[in-house]
Amino acid sequence: MNDTQINLVKTTWESLTPNADKVARLFYSNLFEMEPEYREMFGTDMESQGKKLMMMLNTAVRSLDVIESVVPAVQALGQRHVKTAIIRQRPTLPTPIQTWYQYCFTTRKYMTQWIIR
């Protein structure tokens, strides 16, 4: 990612953070709609799970300009998810993009910054 893309992602992320609880609920609603079997993998405290999700994403977004510093933590998180079978062979990738788009993105310009590989 270049500096313009990083700044755009950070700016759009900042628009989500004041309503993090609502965004997390929308994310999990979308996830469970797309992958109903995932619901059983989570406990009943979805508020706590939502906070964990948003904290992890916040760390990743804030670290985009020094992404190397968070790669080990993200890889470890991925390994934990694989061990607990949260991630299958075909992870549900559209869910975060769908959630962010539904919540605040009004142009494709913002949305494309989140799907650059």
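the 2nd protein, sequnce then structure:
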Amino acid sequence: MPRKKYSEDTIIQILEDAEGGRDSVRQVVRKHGISEPTFYRWKAEFAGLDAAQVRSLRRLKHENLRLRRAVEDRGLEAKVLRDLTAGTWKGTTTESEAR
């Protein structure tokens, strides 16, 4: 089943529907087609925020992930360069070199 992307406005509206007491959590998740664990994860993460704050939080998380990956790549490059300069690089070899 493909994963749905919910907008920040939709997430806030779903949380407000449940908090307003109009419907139970079970009715809200059924109405919007999400699971209860998803609802409670959103509630823990986004409760008390408005849509603009949720957008900002998502943007920051995405940027943080991108930066972490960049740091990991730099660390790997540095290790390869250290191994190359120390003469301990075990890169790929051709069949003629392996004999």
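The chain is about 70% helix and 0% strand. The two ends are 51 Å apart (CA to CA).
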